[in-house]
Structure formats: structure tokens, C-alpha cells
């Protein structure tokens, strides 16, 4: 890409120095640590835009979930690149790589108009709930007794439930969660009806994905995953409007920090409704 005063070249993101990528995300005040970049690079594809002396000015990634679905994320442009249309240039390249898959992304306010102009349609608002967990965070009666620990070797049921809720299989994510996350499941009548995971991310711990058949089940899973995290920084991103889950999170110290918009191209998001698996907590903005 030729800009007014310099020229940029693209490089496969897998071969870019992770510290340079970390510097890029720090520049836009995103919380990703070098380890978070490495985890995402293990799950997806993409490129970085570099100048002639190797400075990183932008990045974009996509994450295949089977042959028919993908999520897009880590689309970052430096102010200089953004001012000269670099965001559109990078997105057009990513869309070519995604082919005919239906696509999901989460947009900041700054990028929203660009994504709409590229054929994406708004679907929902994501509430980024975060803060320092309170001592009362894990106090959740009732369904909490039905929550169990899921061993890394027992992810078959979890993967099937995740696919039903997300609308596509995410096998690479499941493998990564088995290695890096603590996973809890909730059963009803012997059947797995919900699961959630927590892992190290950014400033502390992220809870997600959370998939369940009701908001009350999602609350029970969130409570179980908050156990032992008193005083720790925790984040959970959800598309739920204010209700049982958001109310519980606020009481547990995870208050609304910011919002982004979920947009799709090719198909709408699966509906989240009681009685069927739905996504109550995102895996990550890039993984939805």
C-alpha cells in the first residue's frame, strides 16, 4: 500500500515479532499481552502492515470456524494509517481470504461505519463488564450445586454444546481451552446444558465462553468461575441486556466499562432464548 509519504508491505502475522504486535495494541490501549497475541495467532490467520524499516502500522486477523463461518478481529490501525484509508485496505484483503464464509466481528465506534460500508449488519451490543471481584462474587445459591469441573479430556460434550450455541464448530478453540482454561459445566437430568471457562488474559482473568440454556444457568456458571478470584481483576463480555446476568456481575464487582457492536455478513447471529443453547459470554472479541 502506497501512502502519501511512505509505502507499506504486508507480512504474515505468524512471522511478525510479537513484541511489535504488542506495541501496536498498546498504542490503541487494548489490553492484550504478548501471550494473548500468541494464543490468537495459534487460532487464526492474518497479516501486519510494516514500513520499510519494519515498524508495524496495522494488523488484521480472521479465525475460521469450519468451512462456512469465520470471525474477524485484531483489526488495528495506527492513527497515521487510519487517516489514509488503511483500515479499508486491510479489511478488503481479509475479506478476500475469508471467501464465502458467513462472518462475525465486533466493532469499536471508530470502525463501525467502515464495516457497515463493507456489507456488515448490526446485530447486538456487547457489554464489557470488568472490575475487581468482590468476596461475595461466588455466592450463588440453587443451581450452583449442579456445577461441576470439566476435565480437559472430557471436552466432547462441551464442544457439541458450544457448536449448538455459537452456530458453528470451534474445534481449535476447544483444544486451546483444554490446555489453558479452567472449565465448569452444568448438568440437568444428567445432560450437559451449560459450560463456561476462565483463563488468563489482559489485566487478569477473562471468563468466556459461557454457553447455557438460560440466563439463570449462565449466572450459576459465572459464579462458579468467579470462585477464588476475590480481589482479582476479572472481565466478562456479554450481549445480554440488563437482567439477571448483568445484575449479578455488577454485584460481583464486574461493572460496565465499555460497549462494542456485533455485526455480521451473510447470516444473522443465532438467537439466544431460554430452552436452547446460547452464547451468554464471549470467548473474546476476535473469537465471538
UniProtKB/TrEMBL annotation:
InterPro entries: Acyl/Acetyltrans_Enzymes, Acyl_CoA_acyltransferase, GNAT_dom, YitH/HolE_GNAT. Keywords: Transferase. SUPFAM superfamilies: Acyl-CoA N-acyltransferases (Nat). GO terms for molecular function: acyltransferase activity, transferring groups other than amino-acyl groups. Transmembrane segments: none annotated. Residues 8-141 form the N-acetyltransferase domain. This is N-acetyltransferase. It comes from Methylobacterium currus.
Amino acid at each position: 500500500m502506497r501512502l502519501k509519504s511512505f509505502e507499506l508491505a504486508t507480512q504474515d502475522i505468524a512471522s511478525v515479532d510479537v513484541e511489535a504486535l504488542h506495541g501496536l495494541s498498546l498504542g490503541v490501549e487494548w489490553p492484550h499481552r504478548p501471550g494473548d497475541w500468541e494464543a490468537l495467532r495459534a487460532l487464526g490467520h492474518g497479516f501486519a502492515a510494516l514500513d520499510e524499516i519494519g515498524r508495524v502500522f496495522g494488523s488484521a486477523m480472521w479465525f475460521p470456524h469450519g468451512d462456512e463461518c469465520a470471525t474477524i478481529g485484531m483489526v488495528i490501525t495506527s492513527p497515521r494509517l487510519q487517516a489514509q484509508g488503511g483500515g479499508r485496505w486491510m479489511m478488503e484483503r481479509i475479506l478476500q481470504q475469508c471467501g464465502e464464509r458467513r462472518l462475525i466481528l465486533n466493532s469499536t465506534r471508530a470502525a463501525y461505519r467502515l464495516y457497515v460500508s463493507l456489507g456488515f449488519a448490526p446485530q447486538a451490543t456487547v457489554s464489557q463488564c470488568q472490575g475487581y471481584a468482590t468476596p461475595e462474587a461466588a455466592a450463588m445459591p440453587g443451581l450452583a450445586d449442579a456445577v461441576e469441573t470439566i476435565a480437559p479430556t472430557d471436552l466432547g460434550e462441551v464442544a457439541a454444546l458450544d457448536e449448538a450455541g455459537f452456530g458453528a464448530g470451534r474445534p481449535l478453540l476447544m483444544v486451546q481451552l483444554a490446555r489453558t482454561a479452567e472449565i465448569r459445566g452444568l448438568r440437568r437430568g444428567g445432560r450437559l446444558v451449560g459450560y463456561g471457562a476462565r483463563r488468563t488474559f489482559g489485566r487478569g482473568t477473562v471468563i468466556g465462553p459461557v454457553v447455557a440454556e438460560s440466563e439463570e444457568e449462565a449466572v450459576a456458571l459465572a459464579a462458579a468461575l468467579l470462585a477464588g478470584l476475590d480481589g482479582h481483576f476479572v472481565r466478562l463480555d456479554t450481549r445480554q441486556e440488563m437482567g439477571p446476568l448483568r445484575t449479578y456481575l455488577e454485584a460481583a464487582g464486574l461493572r460496565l466499562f465499555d460497549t462494542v457492536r456485533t455485526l455480521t455478513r451473510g447470516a444473522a447471529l443465532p438467537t439466544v432464548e431460554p430452552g436452547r443453547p446460547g452464547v451468554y459470554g464471549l470467548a473474546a472479541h476476535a473469537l465471538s
